[in-house]
Amino acid sequence: MLTELDEHYDEIIHQQAAIKAEIRDRSKRLHEIIDNRQDELVIQLDQITRKKLKSLAVQIGITTFGRKGTSKGELDWPRGIAVDGSGLVYVSVYNNHHVSVFTSEGGFVTSFTEGVTKLNAPRGIAVGSNGVVYVSLNNCIEKF
């Protein structure tokens, strides 16, 4: 009788381990499904948001300008933006290591890459009331 109980106990322990493994597998699959669905929803939300922002921009007369690239007037990871008193738009471009300047309508005016030091991954940018441009770099503020 004791042997039968031991065998029955071992069988229950084995079944319990199998059930726990099945629960872990199902839980893992469920988390993968949820993660995939969340990714899909984020992409859909991003697409909807972009469409709504573009529509809103058109309604209120905002233009977009610049495009991804490395040539003059093109932007590769713009990080900062500032507007001076005359309406010129200054954009610090992280990956291109320069500042691009545009008219308020989006026409390219000029770009610059050097001051006292070479612009290396410019981040923030500001224009003072006196027209001086300040660009934050990795370890300093450059003044133009």
Topology of this protein?
Layout: H1 2-60, E1 78-83, E2 89-93, E3 98-102, E4 108-112, E5 125-127, E6 133-136, E7 141-143
Antiparallel strand pairs: 1-2, 2-3, 3-4, 5-6, 6-7
State the gist of this model.
The chain has 144 residues and is α+β, with helices and mostly antiparallel strands.
Which oligomeric form is depicted? single chain
Low-confidence stretches: none
Q: Give the averaged pLDDT, no decimals.
A: 80
CA-to-CA gap between the ends? 93 Å
Number of helices: 1
The proportion of strand residues reads: 15-25%
Number of strands: 7
Derived from helix and strand composition plus strand pairing, the structural class reads: alpha+beta
Radius of gyration: 29 Å
- The H-and-E topology, N to C, reads as HEEEEEEE
User: Helix content range of the residues, please?
Assistant: 40-55%
Strand arrangement across the biggest beta sheet: 1-2-3-4
> Mind describing the biggest β-sheet?
4 strands, antiparallel
Examine the secondary-structure arrangement and name the CATH architecture of the largest domain: Beta Barrel
Question: What is the class of the largest domain in the CATH system?
Answer: Mainly Beta
